[in-house]
């Protein structure tokens, strides 16, 4: 297993394949490793056994072969980077098998078991790994590995100590293939990683490619195998030789198998790697006869004494007899790689060496190696220095060559190899590697060496002498001096450590250092050309030596460190001040100088980072208790720097990276600000406080420290709190009287205090309970402390309070919304004080009311406020209002208003991120209706657009149009200027109400067009056309609009529009949100949406709800229960035909629109049987229980559903039911006839079936059942009051005949020869029916139909002679209402 980056280069050695290795630790992942774009956890699964997975006689098959089986890959990037919690979580790694076996090739296994999505039969393990890493998913069929992964901080020793339950001595440790960022002294390593990359082998005399197995072993120069030096995986014991996996009949196998070789350092120069190649047969008898057919080798030590280079090596493949291949004396003299062969024969390029009994094969073989050793080097120059004792005369030359060595090669070789042997002055040549940013991780290693291992007692004499020589000859030795200055810190560490070890001749040592500093002074004061660079380097690097100098120098002498006094730069002082300023005498000299320079640089915005660091360091020293009296020195800093620092912070950009440094440097300053104000005149104090308030508010809002730095944030806030309280005292003392009152200053204070209180780092409820308890125990709740201070400062304002209304309403509201109950109790009364204050001055508190409603909307939507706040707000303010003589009534009204708003806003916020957009729409309408009720036009429009956006997301264009129409209705057709709140959307470019209304109408018309509501679009178009024609005189726009209207009219009569069904939905139980709880709604379904689909969609929104199986109103128990119950059934809209269409022949296409639109009343009819069932006539006692629902608004509207505001129920007698059925049947006959008259292409089958169902009494009995039930003497005698209704029913039966006659006539004209017998029977039945009806009920005649009418669109028979007047709206009685095409369901048809 290994953690692999995107490049698929393994970073840790693979553990052994055995399943017994169940715990693995991969330490030393660097920061750069963790920053990789993708890191994968990879498992290579190798099967050990037969060549093929066949169920043949296993005795005849070769066993023990390593065969590739599959891979398992998991992306662990989020776990490694900490984005995913890895605590006690198991992860499933899907297994991806390889289809490589010969049995699979011959279809002897079921290939469907294997996934063909990623792996194919010609893929290698490494190829499959790459494909799986790139693939989005793996078809693993449930196969895979379960692992737990956890990221542990620290090195291996630390994690064994901190996590003994996870990492113990039995845990396998896979060391990094490469060096960690820090190599500590004593960390000895001598590992060589060998990867078998690929090969290319000729099939030779065989008909198919070979099954090549590579065997790797390590031998000395005598051919002896080294034992236990090969490690196939972490946690494994060392083995004698390693055998590769075998790819079946593959000419160019690619293994990518990595093995670790760990050879004792003394044996490396005598050792080499031997690779032998052997063909493995699947048949055991053949396999035994196979011998090694070739060999490759490579020596671990090159001819120049350096170690084998990292990277790929193209090895030469030699062939010979099997026994000779094992004799190292016969091949070690040969070239092992192709580059080596070319070096031996540079002129010809051909091999002229004596091969003996060996021959070079055409086969090829590649490996790659990586040396991870602290003792071996691959650099000749470094090797020369390591072996300096063998030839001391070359030491000077070797040191110079060392300068050319790449830094990484130096830092990975053990430091003691370079240091304890080379203490002369030339050592500084190479120390500059430490100054490279690339190797900054190596610094602790060198420091550890100096502290614990360095032992040269006289090194300081040579180092100071050489360094002094460089400084005095800066013009000539510029390059050497620059390098020395870069390494100055470590040179002085060696000097000081050497001096501490020697501890003799102190006067000589001190004198040599003084002379060195004198040389520095002379160099800095000289005007010699070409020394500018070294002077800058001196300014940069000299401060780094102070901490070491203080070990051997008296601090009083260090104050003479104004060796660079004339041209000193601030950064020189940064490290000097911490050490030197501890001494009082040093501070007296240096502090005035440093403050003057700090002020100069801050005012000029120069080197701000160094300035801030210096100021921070000085203040940290001054606030220590062991440095003597510091009050006067703090006073000096405040007088000279405080206002300068304030102005610098204010002028810095909010995103400036230096803001952290500024905050650090300024953190301790506020503690003395109150005292500082004593020494200022009043106008200076005003300016100072104004600047400080602005700066503090800016710092608080910048989140100087990361959110998880809790202690640092709390410490900073504690300092801020103390400072703010001191400022408050100054405000109350100097700026409260009428003469000196400063409104802006007080305003800034309140905004600063509220910003401090509401900052994220102080919101304790966001922390875990344990962390919250610890913070509270140490720091208390600082929100409560500052909140109480704000309250007291407000009450101290006295008559000045009115100046802060309404500006301070928002900040105070934000403070009261903080979820801390004591803070809320203390600060909510401020609202009553504001009401009282405004009422005193203006006899009302309308300004306060408007402001708090506006701000409350934004605050609650932003996540603040809760149910507890609503209760407290209501309770506290009502108590105060009821005690007031004048505010009792108006105050109580205001509190009720705000509480109602809070309820709606909390509902809206709760549901705002709900997946159900329908619920979000309902909440939005609740809020906008509230704002409309209280005439808050700005907020009303704001929520109108929120609702419109939701509708557009759901493609509810009709509802979006109605929503925008509410905004348009607020506008006039006038040139009156648009108020700002009327144009809340950037898309509208309008300066007058007329222009905005025009744009809104255009958009609404487009929405109605998309929603196929052309009737509504025409109404708006006419109003808009009136303006274009008579007011705006914009005939171009008028012509475009009229063309659009013409298209709408054509669409109405030509385009078939689907008729949506309507559903009654009841939400019962206390488990629903308040805007749904125990309410019933009428919902408009989507196009072609059936009741079953609608109900399923409804239940998806409320997965915990229980579906009610009855349509009767629920009991009180259900309403008051804690659960959720949903009742849903289909209802029929009641047509409300516009007056202009009544008693007129109107096209059916026109009338059909109003059957499902512009509706507000809906009916649900349920059959109820009274008395015993008559088996011969079920209509006699079939009553209808009809419920009528009236909604709050017409549908469609701004929602697809509206609440039911009234419910009424009535019973329909069987006779009345029969009348309704006959009337609807007559209408349908008439409509169908008209359609066929006007469209001869209509199919005849629906007409055939419909007519046959009426005229053939054998089908459903026709109206014969009505005659049996209602026209008998017995019924007439028992229901004397129904005589008029019976006559109307007879009239309806009589009117059916002329309509049927027209239908039969049309049927005869369009009937085909195949249906001619059917038509003849139809005519016979109709003739019998006609004779009977005309004889019993009289003859009715339709008025003549003109040719013009006959050729026009189908007309709805909305005429008095087709429908006798009725006392009530009529509908079909049915359990499921009627279908969308208005075809009636016969009463009782469902039993």
From TrEMBL:
Residues 1362-1391 have a biased composition (Polar residues). The keyword Phosphoprotein applies. InterPro entries: ARM-type_fold, C2_DOCK-type_domain, C2_domain_sf, DOCK, DOCK1_C2, DOCK_C_lobe_A, DOCK_C_lobe_C, DOCK_N. Residues 1348-1391 are annotated as: Disordered. Residues 460-487 form a coiled coil. It is found in: Cytoplasm. GO terms for molecular function: guanyl-nucleotide exchange factor activity; small GTPase binding. GO terms for cellular component: cytoplasm; plasma membrane. Belongs to the DOCK family. This is Dedicator of cytokinesis 1.
